[in-house]
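Case study 2.
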Amino acid sequence: MFDTGEPNRVIEPEFLRKMERIEKFIKDDPRISQTTSVLDILRQMRRAFHENRQEYYALPETREEVSQYLLLYELSGGENKEKFLTYEYDVARLTARTRSLDSRDVEHFLDAVQAEAEAVFGEDAGSIQYTGFMAFLGVMAKRIATGQERSFAAAALVITVIMILLLRSIRTGLISMIPNIFPVLMTLGLMGMTGIYLDLGLMSVSAIIIGVAVDDTIHFFLRLRREFAQHRNYSAALERTYDSVGRPIVFTTVTLTIGFSVLMISNVTGMVKFGMLAGYAFSWALLADFLFAPALVLLTRPLGPERD
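Prediction:
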């Protein structure tokens, strides 16, 4: 939507030529199949008044000529005029039809159009507004992504505080968060390596992973703390921790992995990817609790010195 803010500004030849430059830029994009605007009406009218000669398929050169063509178009029916122009000729609409695009393509396309608009219109580029489902999808994807980043950071912070309070140690609480964040990093790494785009259906996957993974971590570190308080030996405490909570942690992970893997038989692509990534993440969460967490405990000795 080209909002000039001035009546009759749209019918100025200078403005129409700038709008035509934007139209050409959009048409040259391979993602665009068709564009429609008042420019098509003016070019067709001008060609019709010159014996349909193709060399006259161009914009009128004067404002008077533009006004006459629009008046004749309106008198002859002109039902589509209101789709492209306001009554006072202060706002013009350019419609672009695209093939099916994901949110990444939408974002790149809108950014490219905005950059071209700024180059063509200069300071007046701020009056250009993007409407329709494609623009809505782009804005929604950005806002949801920002919201999910904040929610994941908030979830990680709250869980860290809870772990510190449960384990009664800042050092132990911070160390316990590493196995929780590890499966998130592995999942995002897999998405980056395989080219799985973080679409709307996967925006919440990080928060869900850390929310589920923390359950096993809590069981592991609470049991480890109790065993160490009794034996004052890290190796013995880890061995007894595995004997007591190792099997429940495995059963929980297997149940969650199978449960989320059911989504992989869905006909919705987003659900298939979500189920696959969730099962992948929970498997890494189990490995982190069984291999990564004990290594961190033996390396950092967060519960204090062993008994001599």
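Residues 150-300 form a domain with the Multidrug efflux transporter AcrB transmembrane fold fold (CATH 1.20.1640.10).
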